[in-house]
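User: My collaborator and I are trying to settle a disagreement about how two of our proteins should look. Neither of us wants to argue from intuition anymore, so we agreed to look at predicted structures for both before our next call. Could you fold the first one, then the second, and keep them clearly separated?

Assistant: That sounds like a sensible way to settle it. I'll keep them separate. The first protein:
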Amino acid sequence: MKTVHAWCFGFALFSTNAALAKTFDVNGAWKQLNTVLATHYAYLGDAENHQAVEQAFRKKLNGVYNKQDFIDLSQSYLRHFTDPHLNLGPLNEDDYIVYPTGADIFAVFEENIAVVLDVKRDSAADIEGIRPGNKISTVNGQSIVSAIEDVMQVELSRLTDAQKNYALNIALGGKRYQPRRFKLITKQGTSEMQLPASYDAINALSKGGTVLYKKIEELGYIRFNNAMGNSNTVADFKAALQALGQVQGYIIDLRNTPSGGNTGVAEPILGHFSTTAAAYQKHRIQTPTIHYQRAQVETANTQPAQPSIQIPFIALAGRWTGSIGEGMTIGLDALGAIAVVGTPMADLLGGIKRLPLDKSDAWIELGFERLYHVDGRYREDFEPTVIMPGDMDENGNDVTLERAVFLLKQHIDGKREVIN
């Protein structure tokens, strides 16, 4: 009887899977996804080993029988592009965080462990005391290698270094709204650490206002609080300028803009930094009929706004400067910042749009608009003029802000040669 029941169960499972396969056209859904990428994604040609990855994931379609499994597999496939702007949904509680919004640790993969290079200020990781220089050997009971392979759904040996590091930082962010467990290695030894979901601290931070500001001696400091998609940010920035009163220079902090925003917020703010209409970035748009390389290069301008800033200013950028935050950084550089201080940014590629994938009841967000600094560099190739190791040092000090204060004061005092 046991043999009969086992055989009947296997037959029933085979029959169910066969029926599902008939109702869901997985090959049609896969073709649609890749057609959309080829037609609309302006960064497809930059993807390392894309053809090999596509072939490897196409072979995995044999085990996909429903739309949710297809969405899960496609999300892993798109992570191989290492583009935080390239996302597929809808998302559920079992999905990994959207990077970098849900990330609070930036690490690199070395000798099968995670070496922490940076920690987001005021995040769950910061509050729990994780610092640059610490190492993480397990995530939620998994080895670092297993965690990376789970994110990417391929063996570690098939990944480039960039893909390994990208997957690692997603794994450290964990699943959406789910707590995380790390085995942390510090100078004091090894310990188990439990962190809340990264989004919990991020949501708490959002209650602090769209901009934060204070005086640092004779300087005005303004920090954007991940609200570059909130129209109130424009008025709040102007109010911050007025509240600070007379200062000798400004430090504009864009290190907490991982979720991006839109030009409707960015352009009016940038307008305070110019007395005339001025270019702050360039772009090319890919369409179904025109590849971005054949599209005309267009210039984005900002219009002057009051009060007009005609004193020295420095911009701060980092690994949680994303999308329009990156656009504002290159814009401030073009508009005359005496320096951009920080680390390489998050590299959210291009201006994005969302397209439906009706064969799988999904959607895809992708960069269809290639963005450039006004000097012609790709936005993703821009790096701060003064490179720092991270938002904080091993003791949690804000070394980037400290450096910016020093440089701006030196500039005001006429010692311009120190800006390097």
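The second protein, kept apart from the first:
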Amino acid sequence: MSDPERGQVKPPLPLGLGSATVRVSLIFLGVAFVSLLLGDIEITTSDPWGEMLRFAGGFLTPSLDSIDTLATALLRTVGFAFVGVALGSIAGYLLMLFFDKALVRAFCAFIRAIHELFWALIFLQFFGLHPLTGVLAIAIPYAGVFAKVYAEINDETDPLPGLVLPPIRSRFIQALFLKLPQAFAHVKSYTAYRLECGFRSSAILGFVGLPTLGFYLESAFVQGHYSEVAAMLMIFYLIIATMRWWLRPRLLPLYVLASPFFLGEGLPIVWSNVGRFFTEDIVPAPLKNGVSWSSPSELWEWFSPIAQEQIVPGLWNTVILTQIALVATAILTLIAFVLVSKHFGGAKRRSVGHLFLVVGRSTPEYILAYMLLQLWGPSMLPAVVALALHNGCIIGHLIGRQSNELVLRPGTGTGTDLYFFELLPRLYRPFLAFLFYRWEIIMRETAILGVLGIYTLGFYIDSAIENIRFDVALLLILVTAMLNIAIDMLSRKLRAGLRLTTMPTPDVP
């Protein structure tokens, strides 16, 4: 179909995609719409817009009055990130060597399915406010993530060197001398990305009492010191935005070696508490009272009310919130990538767009949801906005960068014609692939946002820990992990079934 006035050629449909891709997209859209009707989406505070104006005013007058406190918080935030990510990457690389084993893959899937904040809540019960709590809370789930991604990178290397050289039995030697030199650029790039994620993870650990940025951010926000909040966030954004300049490979060993000295000492570990936690605290209550595993009826009496009152409503709200946030992320992504695409506007507009996306993806969902909850009141709305903004900016940045690599066909229009008939058909499949990649991550974050008071699984986990019912808390954490693993499996099945890749379509027929 042609436009005789402008001499431009358009495909007959705005999306040159397979029917299966369109059908899956419509199903997700429909599920999100039904979830929106069932969800708790409202603003409950008496003066939300006035409070938001005061909050915005804080960003116009950032305060550095407590510079010493801020410097300490930032150093500890960076310190926990470096140590946690370093340990996680080493453990992940070792696990990668045996990733072909089903048991290792299952173990890695399990540990990465549990959010860093849940790991921190577990370690707090026996390590207390010790640096080991924060370091392990980051290192353990990151080890599972690193193992998976390193294995995927390792599988994509050229097998030829291993075929022409004498047989090497050691997996470690093969990976170190045959695979790593080929994959080093990808390994380095991904590890740097995970370090950026580590900064965000480290920051939110402050919300459970560790002395990182989140601890001081929460304190300043509760007191209405929005200028201090603004200063903390701005410097945090600056640290992430300038990583390419200060994170030099030759300085990395120095950073890693120096970081433990900035973690603080914390309270001493009482090792008897560690033993009691694993041998008594997390044991289901009936077993502690003499009931054996051979008495399923009494165990069911313990489990049944937990399932009805906590697991079912927690799962329901977690899934509903996730699906709303997933589609909201998709909508924001399809708008956001235009901000950094060279096909729409000049360099100045792209610079502003890039700044917006950097701020959006650098702000941890947990911190953003916390702030919005204080401004709008407890409901799913703050969580949806926080999840959509963070993940939409991440995917929008990736899709925008891919759009800049596309060569437009002759006769391509401008404005909406360029968007709907040229770019979107070629970018939609990688956009969908990235969205499904983030699905399981959005689910993890949705669960943990319950700690803030939203009735997802995290709410019931936090309540169980507060009531010193660690057996119930562990059961709920296991349910959360199983849900995340199920979503990850479904996501991989959809990507494989639709043959989605993260590379743009070279042409649209």
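Some points you might bring to the call about the second protein. The two ends are 12 Å apart (CA to CA). The chain has 21 helices and two strands.
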